[in-house]
Amino acid sequence: MFSCDDVRAALGDYIDGDVAPEVRSELERHLAECRTCQVLYDTTRKTLRIVTDVGSLEVPEAVSERLLRRIMSGLAALPDPPHRP
């Protein structure tokens, strides 16, 4: 079964529809049970939709890297929720 770290690693490809069927199945199973990863998935999708609707947005690479580091450190600080057996 996928862990929260596995979901975070595969989320971009999953949203792009670029994962193998077995990975998709495991990821969706985890999302159905893990509220933290559900929030991450929903937030990521909404953010992408907003950015896409706004049009082309150029973000300097340094800003993008800092933002990604802050997001990832914030996610790493979240406690893993208890999983149901």
Descriptive overview:
- With 85 residues, this protein is mainly alpha-helical.
- It has one domain (4-77).
- The protein has helices spanning 4-15, 21-33, 35-54, 61-77.
- Helix 1 crosses helix 2 and helix 2 packs across helix 3 (35-54).
- The longest helix is centred in the middle third of the chain and has 20 residues, at 35-54.
- It is globular, with a radius of gyration of 14 Å.
- The model has no long low-confidence stretch (mean pLDDT 85).
Question: Which features would summarize this protein structure in a list?
Answer:
single chain, 85 residues, mainly alpha, 73% helix
Query: How much of the sequence is in beta strands?
Result: under 5%
Low-confidence stretches: none
What is the count of helical runs?
A: 4
In angstroms, what separates the terminal alpha carbons? 11 Å
Secondary structure: number of strands: 0
N-to-C order of helices and strands: HHHH
Q: Kindly provide the radius of gyration, computed on alpha-carbon positions and rounded to a whole number of angstroms.
A: 14 Å
Counting structural domains, the number is 1
Range of helix content:
over 70%
Structural class label: mainly alpha
Principal-axes shape call:
globular
What do the pLDDT scores average to?
85
Q: In this structure, how is the largest beta sheet organized?
A: none
